[in-house]
Amino acid sequence: MLALPGGPGHSRSLMGRPATSPRTSGSTVGVSSYRADALYPRIARAVAAILQREKVVSPVDVLVGMGLLTQEHLDDWRRGRAPYLERVIDGT
Fold it and tell me: Residues near 40 by Cβ (< 8 Å), separated by ≥ 6?
């Protein structure tokens, strides 16, 4: 489970269930199979782009880099205007 800092004093789970991917027929994504997941190329490109300009990569930076989360929605969530991150991520 990936935990991200939530609004004031909260911690929110990005995925509150086991790491499965509907793009791989619901199979569990693990160390030996993560590269077969359909999202892997998008994640890898986003991480590479972030590392070109930063020294660290945060999960929300990857979501922004993939186009699943806008900076405006991220700011809303950080300021408590969105009750949880899942509400403002495209595709959830």
Answer: 34
Q: Which domain holds residue 36?
A: 3-87
- Rg of the chain taking only CA atoms, in angstroms: 14
- Per the structure, the count of domains in the chain is 1
| DSSP E strand boundaries for 1-92 | 3-5, 11-13
- Examine residue 92 and state whether it is found in any structural domain, yes or no: no
Residues 48-89 pLDDT 10s:
999 999 999 999 999 999 999 999 999 999 999 999 999 999
- What's the pTM value of the predicted model, to 2 decimals? 0.67
Q: Is 21 exposed, middle or buried (0-12, 13-18, 19+ CB in 10 A)?
A: middle
Q: Is residue 71 part of a domain?
A: yes
Query: Angle at the Cα of 89 (from 87 to 92), degrees rounded to 5?
Result: 75
CB-CB contact of 45 with 30 (8 Å): no
Residue type, 54: E
